[in-house]
Amino acid sequence: MDKNKKVINFNRNIKFNIATAIIGAITLYVIIVIFMAIKKEPVTTYKVNKTDINNNIIIEGLVVRNELVLNSDKSGYACYYIRDGEKVMKNSTVCTIDESGQLYNTINDSESYDDLLNADDYNEIRNLISLYKISYKDVSFYNAYNFENNLNNKVLELTNEVLMQQVGGTSTTLSGVSSPESGLVTYYVDGYENFNIYDVNKASFDKSLYKKNTLKTGDIISAGTPVVKVIPSEKWNIILPVTDDQVAAIKAIYPEEGDRINFRINNSSYDMYMPFEIFNGSDGTYLNISLDKYMLNFISERFVSVEIILEDDAGLKVPVSALTEKEVYQIPLSYLSGGGNQSTNNKLNVQVMGQDNEVTIKQVSPIIYKTDEEFCYVDPLAFDETDVILDINTNENMAVSLIPKVTIEGVYSANRGIAEFKMVTVIKTIDDFALVKSDESLNIYDNIILDSDKVYENQIIY
């Protein structure tokens, strides 16, 4: 063997490097976390807000009045010169019937009213137009037709005396229609004039069957047909169809019939207070509101929208999808006790069996979701199935496995990064949202899980 030839043996045992192991472990952890984050479905949260819910009931109502229809004794052209809604005296003339058409033709043949009207007459017409412009609303556009009739009748009223002189004044072809009662004048008929309140049914509110015949100057009237209508009384009624739920809501606020119910008509901002009654019709339940004023405001309307004012509900607004349920223990209140120097009873005494079969008592502080007059409702996660709770006042005990369970409703709070169950009491549900009480464990601006089905209790969210 060549003595100059050397053989070098390498140590094949690799020394354990702690720093390398730590770096490797951290790298592996980061990879796992990133992989789980990519694979994990994102959880959406919702910020709780405070809200008020308007409980007012809006119903389409039927207007019923004492309405006296006057028929014409003659045939001819109707000439109106009393403004719609104006009050007339008993036995006064409310319109004339032009049998020959001479008066009507005189009006149509006049090229200008300059010779018939003076400056004061034009001012009255301008005032009528100004009043309409001030009170105009898009929701009551139909009043434009009433305004047209009022304007035509006003012009005829102002020109009537001059025209009567031009056609002879005492013409035998003109006959007047007088009102047997004093009252408000209106110019339409619709078949509801002799309507009995207690004969109401669902068909009474069917607008597709409703026909309103407007009476206006120049109409050819046949003898024996309606020519004008007089309303002799300021008393009138609004009849409303109501459901059982609406009746319950109304009686909760207005328990006694005869009480004055608070309501608004046709989106008005003016609150009215009038007596009411609820009665059963042939095909349902109806609300009858009795009024003794404001007749003139709605004299041309048979159907009105009535908003019955009820108390608003206030609370926290949460999505229905956030609601979930949880089973909790229902434990008698007598089992609660204080701890140490505490005066508040918020602890439970649990019997614990030691290894030497020695029984000891320990106190636990479970989550108590709510209490009532008899029971407290406790989170089961604070106990084992083998535990026994003790009433230290009576020495009675109860095995946890035998404690009754009840279901409560709640949401998962995400404020602390975990899905923490918080009990809620739902006041009412509207569409996709629920109104819950604001004086419980859930608070305004809390972050909750939007879809409770996507998580489980105490799951780590972030």
General description of the model:
The protein has 462 residues and is an alpha+beta fold. The chain folds into three domains: 67-232, Beta Barrel (OB fold (Dihydrolipoamide Acetyltransferase, E2P)); 237-310, no CATH class; 317-454, no CATH class. The protein is 18% helix and 35% strand. It contains five helices and 32 strands. The chain has helices spanning 18-39, 102-109, 119-135, 143-166, 244-253; strands at 45-47, 49-53, 57-65, 68-71, 76-80, 87-88, 93-98, 174-178, 183-186, 188-189, 213-214, 220-221, 226-231, 236-242, 260-265, 272-280, 285-291, 303-308, 313-319, 324-332, 336-337, 347-353, 359-364, 368-371, 375-378, 388-391, 396-399, 405-413, 420-423, 426-430, 433-436, 447-449. Strands 3-14-17-16-15-18 form a six-stranded antiparallel β-barrel. β26 and β27 (396-399) form a beta hairpin. α3 (119-135) runs antiparallel to α4. The longest helix has 24 residues, at 143-166. The protein starts with 17 loop residues before the first helix and ends in a 13-residue tail after the last strand. The mean pLDDT is 83.
Radius of gyration: 41 Å
CATH architecture of the largest domain, by name, is Beta Barrel
The tally of strands reads: 32
Q: Which strand order spans the largest sheet, edge to edge or round the barrel?
A: 3-14-17-16-15-18
Low-confidence stretches: none
Assembly state of the chains shown: single chain
Based on Cα principal axes, name the global outline: elongated
Question: Can you give the helix content as a percent range?
Answer: 10-25%
**What is the CATH third-level topology name of the largest domain?**
OB fold (Dihydrolipoamide Acetyltransferase, E2P)
Terminal residue distance: 71 Å
Supply the CATH class of the largest domain.
Mainly Beta
